[in-house]
Each structure stands twice: as C-alpha cells, then as structure tokens.
Amino acid sequence: MKLPEFKEINRKDFLFFSLMVFLSVALILVQVNIWTGDYSYWSLKDLKEEIKEKEDLTQELESKNLLLEQEKNRLSSGRNAIEGLARSELGFIKPGETFYKFKSEQIKNKEIDLSNLKQDQ
After folding, report:
1. Which end of the chain has fewer CB atoms < 10 Å from its terminal CB, N or C?
2. Where are the domains of the chain?
3. Under a CB-based contact definition with an 8 Å cutoff, are residues 93 and 99 in contact?
4. What sign does the CA torsion over 17, 23, 29, 35 have?
5. Are 86 and 92 in contact (CB under 8 A)?
6. What is the pLDDT of residues 50-59, one digit of tens each?
C-alpha cells in the first residue's frame, strides 16, 4: 500500500486556512449569541408577552382612573353627594334621626348555627 504524499504547505495556504478557521469560529460564536444570548431570538417572545401584560395593566389602570375621575366630579358637584357617600360608606346620621340596621339572612343563619353549636357543647 502506497502512502499519500504530502505537499509542502506554503505560507499563503497556511494564512488562508487559518483565516478560514478563525472566520468559521467567529461565525459560530455570533450564531450562538444570536440564538441563546441576552437579546436572543427566544428572549424576543418573552419580551412580547411582557409588553402585552404591561398594556393590559395600563388599560386596567386607565379604566380605574376614569372611574375615580367620575367619582371625583360627582363628589365635587355638591353637598348632597358628599352626604350620601358619608351615609352609605361611614354610617353617618343627622341629629334627631334614628338609624336602623338590618341583618341579612345569611348572617342570621350563621348566628343561629353558632348558637346551636355552643348549646350542644
């Protein structure tokens, strides 16, 4: 069996092959960075989902702000609005008025159940 003959490698061929190896390694590193780096293609999907969540949150906050603005305008419209809010939210009553508070059916049923439990013990 005859062994292949190796040619002598001249300086131009060595520079060419070393440049090709360097460029190949650089291309591979750039591709790896594109697909797996901090600003990669896969991170783009996560960023788009985060933007969608932020837009939804912004829309929700804008609707809440609109409701608060409407309530502010309603309350600044007059004394009756403030008085109505104080009565419903804080339970204020005028002097000379009698305030009655009725319990709901669910609360009555719970109180009856609790009293039955205490008597059984």
Report:
1. N
2. 43-120
3. yes
4. negative
5. yes
6. 999 999 999 9
